[in-house]
What does this fold into?
Amino acid sequence: MRYFSPAFPAEVFGLLGTVAGGVGAYLGLAEYIPRRFRTPARLLRWNGFLAAMGLAHVLVWGFLSTLVPSDNTRLSALLKGVAEVGLAAQLIFHAAFVAHLTLARFHPYKRWAVIAFFGLAGLGLVLRWVAPAWASYLTPFLWVAVVPLLYFSQGLLEAVEQQPREAFLLIILSLVSLFFGWQVLPELFLGQAAPLYEGLFPMLWAVLLLHGGWLLMPILLKLAQVGQSEAGSLELLTAFLARQQRSTSAEEILNTTADFLKRLPSVAGVLLELRSPLEQTQRVSSSLGEPLAEALRQLLHRSPAPEGKIEALPTLQRYHSRLPDQAAILVWQPVALLHGATLYQVLQVAVLGKGRDSFEEQDLQLITTVVEQTALFLENLEQRAYHEQLLTARKEADFLRETREALLPPPSPILPAVDYHVLFEQYDRTIGGDYYQIYEHPGGKWVDFWLSDSAGSGIAAAYQMAQARAALNTLWLQPSSPEALLLHLNDALKRVFHKNNFLAATLLRFDLEQKEYVLYRAGTPEVFYWNPLTETPEILRPSGIVLGNASSQIIRRILVPEKGRLLPGSLFMLFSDGFTEATNPQGEMFGTERLFALFSAYHRLPVEDLAYRILETVRAFTGGSSLGDDGTLLVIRYTG
It folds into this structure.
């Protein structure tokens, strides 16, 4: 049409063709090119390629136009028309690329921004034909409409971050090619600008402004992201601290830290380990394949020292060529312990970046702060557990002390013909299984000396002792022989004891009217006796088995008493195994022989002095102030 009619019709059809071509190119890209090929990176490459081709096109036809004689107006118009076709085609495809790049991640606001921009462009083209004055007033609005397109082109930022050098070179190539192809070469070669160029002038400059904005957009968006990331990081950090306050276990604390770090924009994966020197590791990994997690774990294990340390790696390939070309931050943070086999644990954290050298200074500071706070929460959790343990132990100690006081035997009676002393040593000063009691029967005709030891230790032994004590005091209310007392007690205990529970007991009865004694031993150690008639010490070993574990028929067959006359000066010593099994630092037990030797040597002392002399000797043997177990010593002298 330029060749036959260089004026009005060609320009109108050119403008209409440009509008129709732009719409068709956008719809054609969406219809015939799959979405995976319409990524920001690919569109950017096609945009740069098209700009370079357009520059070459204008250069070729502009150079050819200089070879045409000046009087050949039709041929000159034809060459200008061909240049205009290339110009319009460029504009069509650039507009389609801009629309697709803006709508890469669909949002209604993006759609309205694209509609507004291209609506203004189309209206401007129509007004150029109908009312040129109005078109000149509309042009600034078209250029201002470039700003929303730039704002909604965040998809371009991903292409810039992935391959920054290539992206910037493509944008610069596009901008330079368009500027020279649309602004410099037409004036240089064609002389007077092509008529269609005048109509497309606002749209051409809008596309130039877009390409110039694409150069600045990564920087501007980066600055905006910094502000947003700082506000977002502060919000995330606040939520992180609030959630950690509610954590009740080390696993929950580590999971919270992993979730927080994973939400940071520059983080691709996280690996956390809480290690002790004993290699008891609690591990939390997130979004990492096992080979990569194992490689990071080996890097973390290079520095097992308890002091804090942080290391920023621009790329993991500096350690091994098979590792990805991604940045990483390694942190070692000690966690103090208040109890247990070790004094500290080490919190080891590996944070993997999304690309090479992807961490900035604020990322490093934020990650370090989070790891330090995590260590503090782990230490606080340890302190809470330790204090709760202390509180529980204190409550248990109070309970045991109150229980011990409740289970103490009633006050011992004053016996006119008997002198006795009880030495009761508890290992932990709270509660145990040893129990003694001296019971004077109504009328004072006979008196029972009782010493028992429950199976086990601590609360379990005390519980058995309490059951035996209750049954024993009930049976004492019904006068019976010592044998009947033991058998009835066995029946009572067998009903309440478990299969592993038993009671070892010694019962010594003085018949003060008949001047006789009877001794029953049900699983307890021997009884020492000083015979005033022969002036010799003796060891009494009447047979018997423990109570609460066998039937009374079996116990009756085995239980054999030791009987004898009560003579003035008769001395008996009942003791629990806490004295004979007391151990020195070399692991040697005190034993029955040493105890019997002490009894033989100090039998003439008052019963209280004899008991304390034995206690001092046993303590000297053990090298401490404790026997190592509950110990009860009952020394009884019949004075007649």
Summary: The radius of gyration is 50 Å.
